[in-house]
Structures are given as structure tokens and as C-alpha cells.
Amino acid sequence: MMVNPALFFATALLVSVSNGALEKRRRTLQHRRAVAGLYEDTLFTAPSTGLHPRADCEPADPLNTLTDRLNTLLNSSGAGYVLPLCPNVQYFIQAPILFAAQDQEISTVGYPTGNERATLVVSGPVSNGQGHTTAVDGTCQNCSGVKLRNIQINGTRAGASPTNGGANIEMGGSNSNQLIEHVHSFDPRSWSCLHIAEGAFSCNNVTVQNNDIGPCGSDAFQEWADGISVSCMNSLVRNNMVNNPTDGGIVLFGAPGTVVENNTIWVETMTLLGGINMVDYDPWNGNYTNTIVRNNNIRGGFATETAEAGESKGVNDNDAIIKIGIAIGPRTWFGDRYFNNVSQSGTVLNNQLTGAFGYGMAISSASDFTVQGNVLVGNTSFIGSNGPNCSSTDITPTPAPFVQDQSTVKSSNIQSGFQIIPDGNSLTCIIPPDGGDYWPFGGNPSSSGSSPTETPNTSHSGLSGGAKAGIAIGVILGVAAIATLTYFVRNWAVKRSRASVGRY
Predict the structure, then answer these.
(1) What's the whole-model pTM score?
(2) Helix, strand or coil for residue 17?
(3) What would the pLDDT profile of 410-423 be if each residue is shown by its tens digit?
(4) What is the rounded average pLDDT of the residues 183-193?
(5) Using omega within 30 degrees of 0 as the cis cutoff, is the peptide bond preceding 125 cis?
């Protein structure tokens, strides 16, 4: 009888595969038995304290030693030490937690990004406007490379008047390459949720990304607080969600070389003075060289009632607006305090504004600025009137999308559509309407950022990845089934052969 060579080869291959699979199964079972035998008496026994001298996170208890314990760990553990905080635990600290060496890190074990992040609660004493305001300080002389990651900071102002002192988080100083990410900082006792300081004008390359910031401060007069305050050069501020700040959403104190991009700033229950501010002359003498603000989303207040047919505007229960979406130049903010000094050489590109504002963008006392591609999107309104702090000598312009005091703006490349105004001083003096149907209907983003959704591949040429995977799995299962059948047939044949030998 002729034997088909291909059939013979396939049969031999299947027998070989089945024997190999059986041998591998035997080895696997032997290994599992060995492991089971090794641990069967200790499966439910607590691990040895000699092998594990501490838990995987630093506990909050006992409370009376907490602040000292955390600071001692950082101060005594050297460069690169990671201070691990426990998920879903609040740490009531009585003084700032101080980074002490380069490349140290404070983070929640497992790096969660939601409410399960550990929370440092500012709990030290306050008296007569002085006291504990800062949770974490990374400005030591040897704090380059430190990281604050995946934690929460509760400043616990809780409606009180501001306390003199530092921000919830103080980073920067004369250091480089620090990182703040996935941090929720809110309700600071003092002036900012997060401050990156310039140090001796040598702070460099701090990254602030993927944080959820706010609420910060109160919109009562002089009880405001910033969301993110940056004075460190060549830094990167990106992909942050800044909700309900009250002074500036993101404030650039010069910070030459810094890029601010893809951030979302919005208000819901409080009025914000400025979304993104490039108005501070100090401490960099107005130097915004290579400071770039681009592709940010600034959302003023929206109507809080449900729209009825034919309505385009409604009431906002809190009268919340952003007074200036993007403010450029010290006069927009401080009037003539800085005389003829200007903000200079910054770049503002392709930002989007929606919702209710006093002014979408306002420019005065600026030179060598580039302002291009900034647009209004969705529903907008521009509202407000002179408040009690408006000067009787300054002419406060009527609210409008884009305004420019051309007499104080020099040598700048400004996009079309800016309204020329005679006076751009102290524009934050306006106040929102007290009720009324002035707020556009729209929506606010989630209070925390989310990762972008991967775009599906819609190409239909050839088989899809899923189809190819299905075919591969089918082939493997088919081979395995045949191998198993071959194994059992072989065993049956061997047993029958042995039985035949014994019988005859």
C-alpha cells in the first residue's frame, strides 16, 4: 500500500507534539507539587518581620509622631528615597513635609489617580493670619529631580480668610528637573494651590502635568488664590485641569522659556479674575522671552438652568464669570503701579475660549508679543459693569471678546479682530451681573483629566487583527485537540497490546 508522505509526516508531527506536551505537563505538575509542598504549612502564616521590616506604605498612626516621622524618613534616607503613602488614608500634618535630597519622591503606593490617592491634610495651627499653610516643600538647596506624584493636598481653608504663607505645594527654588504629576491640590489656606518658585533665578525645567487643581481661594475681595503659579524658567505645564481658581488659573511670573499647553481652566461656582495671566513684572522684570501659551481651553461660566426652546442664554446661580480669559501686560491688572514697564517677548497661540467672560483677551503695556490663532468656540457672552474698585479717572471699556490698548502695546504681532480701546488699566475691576439671563448654555468638563481615547483603525484591507487572532487560536486549538486524541489513542493501543501479550 502506498503511504502518502505528507500524511505520514503530519501524523509523526502530531505524535511528537503530543509526547512533548505530555512531558511538559509532567514537569509542570512536578513543579507545582514541589511548590505546594514547600508552602503548604505556611500558606496563611504572616510573613517574617525579619524579611519585611516595614509595611509597603508609611502609616498615618500614631498621629502625634506623624509629621516628624515623615520628615525624618526624607531627611535620613538620602537621594532617591521614595516616601510611600497609603491609599485611601488621610495624613493630618502639623508642619510642611520637606524634601531633603535629590531625586526623592513622595507618592501613593500603586500610583492611583482618583480619590484613593493619599491625602496630606494641612492641620497645623493658625493665629492672627499667620500659621501653617504649606503641605509639601521641595525648594531645598539639593532638591533637583524630586517628584511629587499621585497624592492629594487638602489646604483646609474651609471658608476662612487667607493665612499669610506659602502655597499648598512649594516647589522649584534653585533646582532643576522636578516633576509634579497626578496631584490634586485644593482649598489652600494661602495664595496658591501650587507654586513653582524661581529660586536665585536658577530654577530650571520643572514639569507640571496631569494634575487636577482646585478649588482655590474665594472670590470675595482679596481672598483669592491661584491654581498654578510658575516663576521657574524653561518649565512645562501641560494637561492640567484647573477648576474654580479665583485669582489666576495659571499665572506666569515671567518664567522665560516655559511652555503652557493643553490645559483646561474653568469656573462653576466662583468668579475668576484671569484664566491665564502674563501680567506680573516681578520677579523677572517682565521677561517672557520664549514663554509660549498654546492650545489651552478656557471656559467661563455657563447658565445653570435648563435651556428651553428658543433660549440661548440663562441664569447662573453663582453669577460666575472669568473677568479676563488671557491677560497680557501689567496695566491690565495693576493699572499704573509699574508705570511704563511692560511684559515683553511672549507668545500666545491657538487657545480656545467659551462661556461667559468680561474680556476674552486683554492686552496693554506689552512689547514684542506674538498673539495669533486664538478663537471663540461654542456659546459665549461678554458681560459685566464697573465695580466699586474701578477708577473714576480710567475709562473701563465695555466687555468684549478681544481688547487692546494700542497706545501701550508696541512692536507686537497681534491677530485681527482686537478692538482698540483708549484705556486698558485695571480691567479686573468689573463685576458680573447680579442675576439675569446673560450666561450662555453649555457644559463644563469633568473635574479630572482623562487619557485620550485611542482612535480605532477603520481600514478594511485584508483581515483584521481580531480575525487573524481568531484563525491562529483556532489552528492552535485544532492541533491541541488532535494531539490529545492521538495521545489517548496511543495509550489505548499500548494497553491493548500489553493485554494481548498477557492473554496469549
Answers:
(1) 0.79
(2) helix
(3) 999 999 999 999 99
(4) 98
(5) no
